[in-house]
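Input sequence (146 aa), recorded before submission:
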Amino acid sequence: MFIFIVNFSEAQMFIRASDLFPQKVSTPGSGELNINQNLQVDTLISRYILGNKLLNGGMEGFRIQLYRKSTRTAREESNKVRADFMIEFPDIPSYAEYEKPGYFLVRVGDFRTQLEGAKTLALIKKKYPQAYPVPCVINFPDLNKK
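Predicted structure, token format:
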């Protein structure tokens, strides 16, 4: 029983805030910073990091859904919709997805909030009037892009 508890506790990752900034500056005249905080802050940091790892390298956000059907020809139709979208909007990333029990989806963009994607949604709705935002796990957007 003791071995099980030890192994289980090792599987639970606990991050302290001091572990996030391990570098110590050792230049002459530099001071020392001591952080005194409640242990619950470390627990929240650990939960946040663990939650992000469960998202498989992504983050919670929104994409714009263009297509969702489960008919016999849905796969071919979704590929055609995606190809047409890629020609019309080459700068916006598009994703072909499958959702059980048999839906083929075409979703586009990587937006952190619905407000961030509102301008793109308005632009896309001119060509695809049925488009709407959906919550998704998105790739990290490039914030340096203008």
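Checked by second reader. Strands lie at 59-69, 94-99, 103-111, 132-138.
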